Amino acid sequence: AGLRFAALDRALLEAPLVGMDEVRDEIGGMWPALDRFSAQGVGVVALRDERVLCWCTAEYVGATSCGLGIATAPDAQRQGVATATGAHAVAACLARGLVPHWECGRDNPASARVAEKLGFALAETATFWYARLG
Predict the structure, then answer these.
(1) Over the stretch 1-34, which tens digit does the pLDDT of each residue have?
(2) Hey, CA dihedral for 11, 90, 26, 49, is it positive or negative?
(3) Which helix H or strand E contains 92, and what residues bound it?
(4) Which residues, including other chains, have CB under 8 Å from residue 34's CB and lie 6 or more apart?
(5) What is the b/e burial string over 52-82, where b = at least 16 CB atoms within 10 angstroms of the residue's CB?
(6) DSSP symbol at 102
(7) Contact call for residues 37 and 67 (beta carbons, < 8 A)
(8) pTM (2 decimals)?
(9) How is 42-70 classified by DSSP, letter by letter?
(10) b/e string for 88-110 if b means 16 or more Cβ within 10 A?
(11) Hey, which CATH number is domain 3-117, 3.40.630.30, 3.60.15.10, 2.110.10.10, 3.40.50.1970?
């Protein structure tokens, strides 16, 4: 079966697909609840059969912009899957009137290359501090 792309809605988030646990974990690390993401977030997955190969999700959504992050299964890398998934996610952001920003760590040059292929240009680098609360 071929590759297909789907918007991450609540029904898809609850689907028993291989790899969806990782998508839910990613969203859970950025959003207070899946319901909030379902109502306000933006996300696209690449699917083949009953398996998630790649996901691109908004790590936050503001009034006019959002920050996108992406992850791809190791056996689906270097095949254009991330670039295509990212393109669908960018289109979903623009359709909602949101300006997407691409976010990735310095230790993730593959994500930076995907961003460049999609037309993003490096605007700044930043240092983030995380607190483990609770």
Answers:
(1) 699 999 999 999 999 999 999 999 999 999 999 9
(2) positive
(3) helix 81-95
(4) 10, 13, 24, 27, 28
(5) bbbbbbbbebeeeebebbbbbbeebeeeebb
(6) E
(7) no
(8) 0.91
(9) -EEEEEETTEEEEEEEEEEE-SSEEEEEE
(10) bbbebbeeeebebbbbbeeeeee
(11) 3.40.630.30
Q: Both tokens of residue 34?
A: 């899946």
- Report how far residue 26's alpha carbon sits from residue 59's, in angstroms, rounded to the nearest whole number: 9
Q: Where are the domains of the chain?
A: 3-117
pLDDT tens over the chain, length 134 residues: 699 999 999 999 999 999 999 999 999 999 999 999 999 999 999 999 999 999 999 999 999 999 999 999 999 999 999 999 999 999 999 999 999 999 888 889 999 999 999 999 988 888 777 787 76
Which amino acid is located at 44 in the chain?
Answer: V
β-strands 3-7, 65-72: how paired? unpaired
Structural contact between residues 63 and 31, judged by C-beta atoms closer than 8 angstroms: no
